[in-house]
């Protein structure tokens, strides 16, 4: 009735070590959350929006100034603005945490 559980010892050890080391760094480095926010804001738009949209354009051969092209470009631009605002907010949080 129950599915067979396959345990990968290397994966278990690596994940455990990763979580323990990340938690240790977070406790030693007081601005860890702010740094992660900055890195997340820098990586969000290019990795989650820009590259997939560009690949979609190439794969589906979407021509410029078609309705789908305009909608996806608008979506990409709005997400870029959200990323910039998030980056500014993360930098402000990092700076205010550093000086308080």
From TrEMBL:
It comes from the Eukaryota. Residues 7-95 form the Amino acid transporter transmembrane domain. The chain crosses the membrane at residues 12-32, 38-58, 70-91. It holds the Pfam family Aa_trans. The keyword Nucleotide-binding does not apply. The keyword Transmembrane applies. One of its GO terms (molecular function) is symporter activity. InterPro entries: AA_transpt_TM. GO terms for cellular component: endomembrane system. It is a multi-pass membrane protein. Keywords: Amino-acid transport, Auxin signaling pathway, Membrane, Symport, Transmembrane, Transmembrane helix, Transport. It is found in: Endomembrane system. Its main location: membrane. One of its GO terms (biological process) is amino acid transport. Belongs to the amino acid/polyamine transporter 2 family. Amino acid/auxin permease (AAAP) (TC 2.A.18.1) subfamily. PANTHER family: OS05G0424000 PROTEIN-RELATED. Carrier protein involved in proton-driven auxin influx. Mediates the formation of auxin gradient from developing leaves (site of auxin biosynthesis) to tips by contributing to the loading of auxin in vascular tissues and facilitating acropetal (base to tip) auxin transport within inner tissues of the root apex, and basipetal (tip to base) auxin transport within outer tissues of the root apex. May be involved in lateral roots and nodules formation. This is Amino acid transporter, transmembrane domain containing protein.
């Amino acid at each position: 009735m129950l599915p067979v559980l396959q345990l990968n010892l290397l994966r278990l050890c690596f994940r455990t070590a990763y979580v323990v080391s990340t938690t240790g760094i977070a406790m030693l480095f007081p601005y860890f959350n702010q740094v992660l926010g900055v890195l997340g804001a820098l990586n969000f738009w290019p990795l989650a929006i820009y590259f997939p949209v560009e690949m979609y354009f190439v794969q589906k051969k979407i021509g410029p100034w078609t309705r789908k092209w305009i909608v996806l470009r608008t979506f990409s631009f709005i997400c870029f603005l959200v990323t910039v605002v998030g980056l500014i907010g993360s930098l402000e949080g990092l700076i205010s945490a550093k000086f308080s």
